[in-house]
Amino acid sequence: MDAKHYNVLRDDKYGRYLVTSKELDGGELIFTDQPFAVGPKAGKYNTPPLCLGCYCPVENTLCSRCGWPVCGAQCERDPQHIAECEIFSMAKVRFQPVADWTSSAPQLDCITPLRLLLAKEKDPERWRQELEMMEVHTESRQQRPTWSMDQVNIVDFLVDHCKLGDRFSKETVQKACGILEVNAVEIPSRGGFSIRAVYPRLAIAAHSCVPNIVHTILQDNYKVEIRAAIPIKKGEPLYLCYTHALSPTIVRREYLLESKFFNCDCPRCSDPTELGTHLSTIKCNKCDNGVILSTNPLDNDAQWICTEKTCGFKTSGGAMRKMLAVVQAEVDQLDLLEPGPQAIEQREATINKYKSVFHPRHSILLSIKYALAQLYGRVEGYSIDELPDLMLERKAEYCRMVLKTLDVITPGDSRMRGMMLYELHAPLMYLARNEYSIGLITKDKLKERLQEPLQCLADAARILSREDPQSPEGITGQIAAQCLEQLKASLEAI
Ligand SMILES: [Zn+2]
Ligand SMILES: [Zn+2]
Ligand SMILES: [Zn+2]
Ligand SMILES: [Zn+2]
């Protein structure tokens, strides 16, 4: 039996939202949800053509029946693709050849709305009970340029070109677009590519930039499991974070307004220091000790001023956004590097370049440190047993820095915490052993020092055991469990 430990309430601020129906322990399963529809993201998120069965990137391989992108014969028969395949074949509407198979493909924008509509036909009862009343923010969406693009690429395309007018009205298709735009979540596909899905129950959970629930996607059927991240009292609202947890306030609030149509005023957004994490804090270059903070983080255009009273440096919210966007674009390039010595060295260079601009725990620097914490010990020339103590210490320092921030912004068990705890165990273990081998610490001291990595592994294994066993996090969880057994055995042998 699936768990169901929630009730649905309604108020003016959140609309519908979820509260717990009983007291929950951290890690406890609250409910599961099946996606109503799964499919590619919209072209405006820069998704190149991908296989409509498995979502891997494709080039020039098309379905032999309908002429839309699939990677091979097996995916032509994928249950995800069969229904639309029939519609495209019947209407003789083929995917138009593209010159560049790596650039965004708005032709695929119709796929997920079509799948949502076909799911509505198949399960009208669930549509009526769970999707009909979903937020679609029609008035706000009508103001945007994407509205007329959707009208052409999706609504007119499906109704007129694909001859679905007798099955779906243009209003219904536009409603499907709205449901997706407002309620869909980004999920990893089986192959690790980013796609989107609508989970009707999960979509009711309210947002906070300090969430109290976590969700795990199972890869074989994209079912989602929702768990308590921390202990939650009976009757408390369940909060999911709809945006990237490590982003700074300006970026999170802009994303939430753009894609979810609300202005977040959660405790983290309201605090210029982001609850003391300093994810948004800039260093002042006009004085020695000042930092620059927003005078009102709930207003994106508010001024930013130096905290040092005698300094008085000021800048505009607009200038701050522009500066962040420029640096972020540079940092995004780092993610394109293959894992190798370059991936480490270029990240270290970027930290050096910006260490006088940002607080050491600013989102930009912390994200790079998060990546480095995973790269040290993993790539050629930087394998864990050839890292000098100095670098082992740095790896441990970056892990602790990320964990300290996670304590505040995603308290309790989260994937990111599990991954960082796993990374932290290795340098702690190697540093202790190195010190013992050169006679710096006694045998008893070594045993004592190995308790912390032991605990890191136990926590990482526990947190990550909830992830899909095929996902990168699930695999790390299994490795953590093995390392835990090995470390226990070697502790007994000391
Ligand atoms: Zn495929
Ligand atoms: Zn097909
Ligand atoms: Zn917020
Ligand atoms: Zn200053």
Characterize this entry briefly.
InterPro entries: SET_dom_sf, SET_SmydA-8. By secondary structure, the protein is of the alpha+beta class.
Q: Any key phrases for this structure?
A:
494 residues; alpha+beta; Beta-clip-like; Serine Threonine Protein Phosphatase 5, Tetratricopeptide repeat; 3 domains; four-stranded antiparallel beta sheet; three-stranded antiparallel beta sheet; 17 helices; globular; binds zinc ion; SET_dom_sf; SET_SmydA-8; Protein msta, isoform A
What does this structure look like?
With 494 residues, the protein is an alpha+beta fold. It has three domains: 6-34 and 200-242, SET domain (Beta-clip-like, Beta Complex), CATH 2.170.270.10; 37-192, no CATH class; 324-493, Serine Threonine Protein Phosphatase 5, Tetratricopeptide repeat (Alpha Horseshoe). The chain contains 17 helices and 14 strands. The chain has helices spanning 73-76, 79-91, 111-122, 124-131, 138-142, 145-161, 170-183, 249-260, 267-270, 317-334, 341-354, 363-375, 389-409, 415-437, 443-449, 451-464, 472-493, and strands spanning 6-11, 15-20, 29-33, 37-39, 185-188, 194-198, 206-207, 213-217, 224-228, 239-240, 282-283, 291-294, 304-306, 314-315. A hairpin with a 6-residue loop joins strand 8 and strand 9 (224-228). The two termini are 46 Å apart. The mean pLDDT is 94. Bound molecules: zinc ion (4 copies). One zinc ion binds at residues 284, 286-287, 290, 306, 308, 311, 313. Residues 51, 53-54, 56, 70-71, 75 line the site of one zinc ion (ZN).
